[in-house]
Amino acid sequence: MKRTGRRRSSVWDCFEQVGNFVRCMKCDATLKYCGGATSSMMNHMSRHHPSTTPPDEDEKPVICTVQCIEEESTGHSDIMQVAIMSPNMSLTNNPTEREYGERKRLKRSSVWDIFIKVDDEVHCTMCDTKLKYRSSTTSMMYHIKNKHPDTMPSDGVSLATHAEVTELISRMIEKDMLPISVVSGEGFRELLAYTVHNYKMPSAGDITRLIEGHFHEKMEELVMQLGRVEKVALTADFWTALPFQRYITVSCSFITEDWQGKSAVLRTHKLSSDSHTTDTITERLLNTVQTWGIAGKVTACVHNNTQDVLSASACARVTWDYATCFATTLQLAVSDGLSEDLVRIIAAAGRLVKHFSHSLLASEALEQKQVQMCLPQHKLIQSSKARWDTICDMFERLLEQRWAIKAVLSDRTITHRQEAQTLEIEDDCWQIIENFTPVLATLKWATTVISAETEVDSNDLASKPALIASMLDPRHKHLSFLTPTGRLAAKVKLHELVSKLDVITTTVGPKDEQQETLITPDISQVAMPSQMRSDTKNTMVLLLGDNYSSSYATDSEAQVDYYLRDIAPSLDINPLDWWRVNGPRFPKLATLARHYLCVPGVSLPSLLSEAGQTFATMRTRLSPEHVDMMIFVNRNA
Question: Which of 40, 140, 179, 355 is deepest in the core (most CB within 10 A)?
């Protein structure tokens, strides 16, 4: 005998099928239904309607259709029999295997409704995207959420497996730069115990091993990327976590073959209290360069150190030039440029803001005055000595709330006379603040522009990487900010670099003439008698050479001259986009552009944004043994 029928699950007493979905008749919840599986419906009933959950199917009488085939009978008569099975009987000989299979199906991730596995890859059936599969469905869940949000399963179907939850915990720690010990917190464990049924909380060691796996994966990817680039620029970011914990984070910037600007963190070194010297820091940089296999590829190193420990004259062991971070230089210039009167005004403004921050009565009164005067309900901003741009923010906010502040200080029920006289800013000081704020705002705007990651950055000055990069930026190639003598020296330096490139190219091998620059239309094919044209051509070629009338500029100096005479693009054009289009016109200069336009203007551009400031705050809470790994996986995500 063999089974031909299939028993009906008792879960259908609570659900009805509507196309490719099923609807719960108790709460009208809609679940996806595919493949005849009832696991999602059983799970929904157990979670949302436990009091009405259907009894175990093995305890119900089951009607089964059985077909009996009499092989010895000539008529092969089919006898349909109905067997009534007792509650203690089972359809299979091994009920424990059946129960195990049912439990296993309950843990099946819903992503497999959209993905299919092919060898060590998974293929999306909706857009043909191929992803690597390493026994985790997290990447598939991310793909569905980002690319096909309308197909995300609802209700109980999208229950994540325990492995997926653990993977998400490790990603959360990496993204938010949390201490790994967060998984040991009682509150965090209670949260997961409540939200994930029967979840076994991983230990700090388990999470560390997961993050280490991500760390090594990203390292392998970055090594392959760096192996394909010609030149890179280093950035050295000095920062402090605690008064006695100093670090240097070494990053790199480079330009890909398709003219995409990329940056990545390479290594974070801890500096001891007695190792903040030129030799020690240079050793750290050389070690990083050797580890990543980019020796000989470094164009320049941008740093934010204010103690001048990375001066070019003191670092003869390296092959690159050093440049100070633009934001750091501007910070020092602004700080040194403040007069004593301005310093006193800044201190008085700081005391005023501090008063409203610490006095609840004054703060509430300020909010009431803002409403009465129809002013924006903004809080005052306190400046920071470490960042001059916060002075600009503080002044702008004080000017905005000036009359509301005066009203609060004039109210004797809120501010005493003696206290008001101490805090009040005189009218001439207000005038200075009003005149000085636009100056700071301009400098702040310049810092923001130069710090964007999509932007690129006398005889001694002409050899600096920053100036060469400015010449290779088509927007600034005319160097209008220099004197005529300085522009001439920069042009000579550019010719010298192109000539050196010619020597290297000649050593490697002759370059295809067809790759040279198309400068003028080809007018060599002028209509004339064929015999005369042939004789004339042979004679002229013999006298002047094959490339004399070529439409391609084979002379390096010609490329530089044509490039400098070319019309400069608009200031809002990305220079890398310009070179992607015009690179074939100036192939030698395009090679130099890849070498020098990767030099950033600041040591770590993102730190000057709001998100970067949050990152700078988060990294100070990491333990020393995890600093390098956590910053690497966070910044290279």
Answer: 40
What six digits make up the tokens of 556? 């390096």
Cα four-point dihedral sign 181, 184, 190, 192: positive
Q: What is the mean pLDDT of residues 398-420?
A: 91
Which residues, including other chains, have CB under 8 Å from residue 113's CB and lie 6 or more apart? 32, 34, 153
Reference 113, options 158, 177, 68; nearest CA is 158
| Cβ-count burial 216-243 (b if 16+ within 10 Å, e if not) | eebbeebeeebeebebbbbbbbbbebee
Strands of the sheet containing 63-69, edge to edge, are: 2-3, 63-69, 78-84
Backbone angles phi, psi at 451, to 5 degrees: -90, -5
Q: 76: exposed, middle or buried (C-beta count within 10 Å: 0-12, 13-18, 19+)?
A: exposed
Q: Which residues contact 556 (CB under 8 A, 6 or more apart)?
A: 495, 498, 499, 501, 502, 588
Measure the CA angle with vertex 179, ends 177 and 180; round to 5°.
Answer: 110
Q: Which residues, in sequence order, are CB contacts of 127 under 8 Å at separation 6+? A: 147, 148
State the Cα–Cα distance between residues 62 and 12, nearest whole angstrom: 14
pLDDT given for residue 72 in this prediction: 42
**Cα 259 to chain centroid, rounded:** 18
Determine the pLDDT at residue 505: 57
CB distance 553 to 589 below 8 Å: no
Average pLDDT value for residue range 6-22: 80
DSSP 8-state symbol, 148: -
The whole-angstrom separation of Cα 404 and Cα 339 is: 28
Residue type, 189: R
pLDDT digits (tens, 9 = 90+) for 529-580: 445 445 555 555 555 555 554 444 457 778 888 898 888 888 888 899 999 9
In DSSP terms, 235 is beta-bridged to 251, 302
Place of tokens 């927007």: 475
Confidence of residue 219 (pLDDT cuts 50, 70, 90): very high
For the segment 164-180, the average pLDDT, to the nearest whole number, is: 88
Q: What average pLDDT does the chain have?
A: 75
Q: Give the three-state DSSP class for 630.
A: helix
DSSP string, 307-351: S-TT-GGG-TT-SSEEEE-HHHHHHHHHHHH--HHHHHHHHHHHH
Span 127-140, mean pLDDT?
Answer: 82
Measured CA to CA, the distance from residue 520 to residue 512 in angstroms comes to 19
The answer for residues whose C-beta is within 8 angstroms of residue 259's C-beta and 6 or more apart is 576, 577, 579, 580, 583
- According to DSSP, the residues that pair with 245 across neighbouring strands are 242
Q: How many helices (H) and strands (E) does the chain have?
A: 23, 16
State the Cα–Cα distance between residues 523 and 512, nearest whole angstrom: 21
Strands 15-18 and 21-24: antiparallel
Token digits of residue 245: 């914990």
